[in-house]
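Teaching soon. Got one?

===
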Amino acid sequence: MNRIFLALPVILSDYKGIQNDFDDIVQGRWVPTQNLHLTLQFFGHTFEKEFLIERLSRLQLKADASELKGLQCFNDNKVLYAKTDNPSLQIVHRQVAEALDLPHDEAFIPHVTLMRIKKIHHEDLLHKRIHLYDQKVIGRLHPTLQLIQSLLTPEGAIYTLLKEF
């Protein structure tokens, strides 16, 4: 199944170190290093790739480079993620939604998914470990916008870069 999304590439300083810090606390699937990204807009199967390339090429989209600082966890779907405080991401998200007549998600939280948690072995320890990362810079967002196609396989997602903006 192919899905398309607009993203920013990510570089983490010590992804293996983060994985080691949480391996005894949680169990789940870590995102492979080559698939790390921040999704600005998920299109799924809504549009053809040629249409998206043509429409997004017309826009003056500018996402600023920024640091990834700290970790957090979405409790409802058990996702461990890296945080960023970058107002330009909200602007790009809104511009793309308006240009394609998509609903603008006011609850959009720019983040980089690191792990989909299947089981938490030590809930209190998880939150303490996350807290240790509060002010720690763990990586960077590259300001290049990328339109990516994702093919889901039993082994995981395979990404194909369609266009850089």
Summary: The longest helix spans residues 87-99. The chain has a mean pLDDT of 95. The chain is about 25% helix and 40% strand.
